[in-house]
């Protein structure tokens, strides 16, 4: 007999989150195929473009991008290398921090990011349309609550391993 606290898989919030996420990602992946972008490439490309507009300066670092997207720093670096090879971004050394690279989205990258985001947002609208506005807002609130709790959980786990 399996040792799980859940009698039914439908009682496990983690398993349900996994199922919803993989289903949503499949739809997003299909929407991004015409743009020849993986989901991670899209998230990093569009986020870099979005962050540069929010900050009022095109100087977004790899670390800022990784923190904003919650993508591992090493994965971020690898994906940015691919985007750079495609001519979608430029990476240049930071003017004051020799350890940092500044990411700038090229005009071709901006065009691709803006076209791709419309496809992704169409998927989002369709996928989440089964929820009413109140449910969607509550889901967003709950996801933000979970995201805001990630650091305390990580700190607790590190404390368990340091003994």
Characterise the protein shown here.
The chain is mainly alpha-helical and 163 residues long. 66% of the residues lie in helices and 7% in strands. The chain has two domains: 31-129, Winged helix-like DNA-binding domain superfamily/Winged helix DNA-binding domain (Arc Repressor Mutant, subunit A, Orthogonal Bundle); 131-163. The protein has a three-stranded antiparallel β-sheet with strand order 1-3-2. The chain has helices at residues 13-32, 39-55, 62-69, 73-85, 107-127, 133-148, 150-161, and strands at 60-61, 89-93, 101-105. Strand 2 and strand 3 form a beta hairpin.
Reported for the largest beta sheet, the result is: 3 strands, antiparallel
The SSE string, one letter per element, is HHEHHEEHHH
Unreliable stretches, pLDDT < 50, 5 or more residues?
none
How confident overall, as mean pLDDT? 87
**Strand line-up of the largest beta sheet:** 1-3-2
Salient structural properties:
7% strand, 3-stranded antiparallel sheet, 163 residues
Mind sketching the topology for me?
Elements: H1 13-32, H2 39-55, E1 60-61, H3 62-69, H4 73-85, E2 89-93, E3 101-105, H5 107-127, H6 133-148, H7 150-161
Antiparallel strand pairs: 1-3, 2-3
The gist of it:
The protein has 163 residues and is mostly helical. It has seven helices and three strands.
């Amino acid at each position: 007999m399996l040792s799980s606290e859940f009698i039914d898989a439908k009682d496990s919030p983690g398993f349900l989150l996994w199922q919803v996420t993989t289903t949503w990602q499949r739809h997003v992946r299909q929407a991004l195929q015409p743009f020849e972008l993986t989901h991670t490439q899209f998230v990093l490309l569009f986020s870099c473009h979005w962050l540069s507009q929010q900050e009022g300066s095109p100087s977004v670092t790899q670390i800022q991008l990784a923190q904003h997207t919650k993508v591992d720093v090493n994965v971020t670096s690898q994906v940015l290398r691919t985007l750079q090879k495609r001519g979608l971004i430029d990476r240049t050394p930071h003017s004051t921090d020799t350890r940092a690279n500044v990411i700038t989205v090229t005009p071709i990258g901006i065009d691709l990011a803006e076209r791709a985001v419309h496809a992704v947002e169409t998927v989002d609208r369709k996928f989440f349309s089964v929820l009413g506005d109140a449910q969607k807002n509550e889901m967003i609130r709950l996801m933000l609550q979970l995201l805001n709790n990630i650091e305390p959980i990580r700190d607790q786990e590190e404390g368990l391993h340091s003994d």
